[in-house]
Design brief:
Blueprint (H helix, E strand, L loop, with lengths): L9 H12 L4 H7 L5 H33 L3 H11 L19 E4 L5 E4 L1
Antiparallel strand pairs: 1-2
Helix pairs in contact: 1-3, 2-3, 3-4
């Protein structure tokens, strides 16, 4: 006899969304709501899986942004600058090659020009 079709409850939807927000793998969420496979979970709870993760990322990014721009959390500001602005710290062994000095033209009294490299 075939299994009856799954009818997701509001409680299951809330739990799936919450677990997805926390990064729990689909294979681990499915048994928590008595589903045998992650594929079935994705079929019936696609919206909750996608929104949970997106909303969690949004909340964390919003908090980080507020911390970084408040002037009170130097670590958050540095993290933002490194990840979003691509700032980086240079180590002692990170020496940039310098260009040779430009050609210098010097004039002596009387108008005579001498070039130096």
């Amino acid at each position: 006899m075939p299994r009856p079709p799954l009818q997701p409850t509001d409680e299951q939807r809330r739990l799936v969304k919450s677990m997805s927000a926390m990064g729990i793998p689909h294979e681990d969420i499915a048994p928590m709501i008595n589903i045998r496979s992650a594929k079935t979970l994705r079929t019936h709870f696609r919206k909750e899986l996608d929104r949970g993760m997106t909303e969690a990322n949004y909340k964390v990014a919003q908090t980080l942004f507020q911390m970084a721009t408040s002037g009170e959390h130097l670590g958050a500001t540095i993290f933002w600058a490194k990840t979003r602005l691509r700032f980086r710290e240079r180590g002692a062994d990170d020496v940039r090659p310098t260009a040779p000095p430009p050609f210098i033209v010097a004039c002596e009294p009387g108008g005579q020009v001498h070039g130096q490299a």
